[in-house]
Structures are given as structure tokens and as C-alpha cells.
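A further point concerns the way the authors explain their paired sequence and structure data. Since the whole study asks how a given chain folds, the encoding of that fold should be made plain. A single example would do more here than another paragraph of explanation. An entry of this sort, consisting of the sequence and the corresponding C-alpha cells, reads as follows:

_____
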Amino acid sequence: MFKNKTGEKVPKTFRQRLKIQLTVFFVLFILAEIVLRLFGMKAGTLMDDFKVEDNPVYVARFESDEMGINHIIPKKEMLIWGSVINKQGFRGKIDYTPEVMDSLRKSSSKQIIMLIGDSYVEGCCPDSVQNSFGDILNRDGRFNILNFGVAGTDPVQYELVVKKYLDNLKPDKVVICVYFGNDILSFVRTPTPGIPLHFPFRNNKWIFELAPNDLSGKLSYNFHSADEAYNFYVDHYTLKGKSRNLFEKLISYSVILSKVYLTGEHTLAKRRWQKSHPGYTVDANEIAYKNLKSIETVCKDQNIPCLFVGIPAPFESEEGDKLKTKYAIVFKDISWFVPTTITKKDYDGPNLGNHFNNAGHQKYADFLTKLLKEKNPGK
């Protein structure tokens, strides 16, 4: 109801009600846009950590060898500060060769340990790389740690590393660190000799070398260059691509409209993929198990003890013993261990991409030290 010129109360017309509703909607829409932007969400893109740039700068951090193993390129800009990269492309002050191993055995009674994993093993992210659990173990006095940690890698890489280096180096023990956050792959990844696993861009996202099946329309398609990977992300994760029409470019200025539109686009792409590939499924647990079981077999054939240890993601760190049940389907008949003392405070953040802080690295080093001291852990 509202009052007319004579002061009488009369009902609002449909046009008046519509005008009020549109005004309220517009105000709320603008407020929502402002709030979302304050929380770091960006317009025109589905991924807030991916920026569309006129001149994106690719900074190679990895190179892939003849087996598809990713090695670290010793470029200062992309290294964890304080890192030294050896001739084999891993973080170490010594070369990982049979000659160096023979020298270590002659000069010391320390156990030689192959430590294999992703960025946690490489040394991210205490206040100094010397405070990472691999370095702490190396200073213990009982161990010579061969650090085969490479950021962004997975059990496919871990298996390849064991197959290539175990026989030549003949360590006393092998330790495989499985990060529960993203090591259990939900897709099939085959090694790509000559093509790195990630394409890092300066001040931008690291782009994974495997394209999503539903967006590429191809099964397990690998990008062949950084430019191809970057352009794919521009075309499929933003509304800034060259093929976008005027309407798409207009809504790209809105956080809400662009994200709703791109989410719908991806949903339709997934439905099309599922329709054209009926019955296609991937058992992530089985994929991880096969890689880990292969590692165990190779080590057994060489009569070298292998320890499989888990690294909890930040959000599951306080589940403790429940993790043994949660991931039993991944390891099956493989003996494995996970720390129960880690808490959320032992990470530098709550997300999948976060890592141990100083306290977390120290706790994990203590956990590994106890295991390595035992002759037959778990038996």
C-alpha cells in the first residue's frame, strides 16, 4: 500500500512492485559483488589463482627425462630459498651416483636413506629449508638423506624414481612419503618423457600438463608446451578467450555472472563427456595402490627395506588413528604408517596446497626418526 496525492491508501500497481523488487535485487547484487571481491574472488574467471595476461611469462622449474621423471632446474627464481640442486636435478649437496654412495659408505656408518615425495619432501615451507624434515633427518648423525622430493609430483613419479635409481644407489632404506591431499590421483596419468609435469608462470598459476577429459574432449590429453597449456586455461576457465562472444565478454566484468556461467559451461561439458563415454570410471585408490605396490616389489627384489608413510592434509590432520582406516583401501596389503601427533597448527594454512611449518616439520622428522631406528617397523 502507498498514499496517493490526496493521502488515500491505495494498493501498489504491478509496475510499482516490479520497480521496487528490481531496485532491491540490484542493490543486493552490487553488495554481493563487493563482498565476493573483498574475499578475493575475481570476475571473468572460474579460478581465482589464474590471471589472464597479455604477456604471460613461463618460468621453467622442471624438466622431464627419458623416463618421464621430473627433475628440478636450478633456477634461483623458482627454487625454495637456500636449496642446492645436484647434477641429477634433486635437492642435495652431493651427487646421487654409485661412486658417491661408495665413498659415503667408506667414510661413514650412517644409513643411506632414499627419501621420495613431493613438495613436503623437497622442503616446503618452514622459515628455512634447513628446518624441513628431510634436512633435520640429515643432521641427525645416523642418516645420510638422499632427497628425491620434487614439488607437484605423485606416486607415478615415485615409482619411476625407484626403478631408475634404486639399483645404482643401493640405499639402506627407502622412504615413500604419500601426501593424502593430492597424491591419490583421480585420473590416469602416464609418464611424459620430455614434457614437464607442471608449467609454472611468473606470479600466476602452475598449470598441470594433463588436460581435463571433459574440457578437452580427449582421454588423458597432455599439453605439449606452456603456451598450449596457458591458452587452454584462458579458453576454458575464463571469459577472456578470443572465441568468446559479446555477451560473454560483458558478463566477464561480474564475479557472480561469470562464475555462474562458467560453472554451467563446465557442468554441460562433463555431461557430454559422460554421455559419450558411458561406463568410464577411474578407481583412484586402485591407481595409487598399483604404483605403491610396484615400488614395494622393486625394493623387495633388491632386498632393500621400504617404508611407506602418509602425510595428512591440513584439514584431516587431527583425525589421528582414523586415517589408518580411511586410507586402508589405498595401501591394502602394504604396511604403512602415519603420525598421530600432527595438528592443524603444524601447517602454514588450512588448504590442500599448504605445508608443514617449523613445528610440523619437526614433528614429522621425529616420527620418521623413530621408524628408521626400528629394524622391523610394524612387525
Notes: Residues 115 and 147 are 5 Å apart (CA to CA). The longest strand covers residues 111-117.
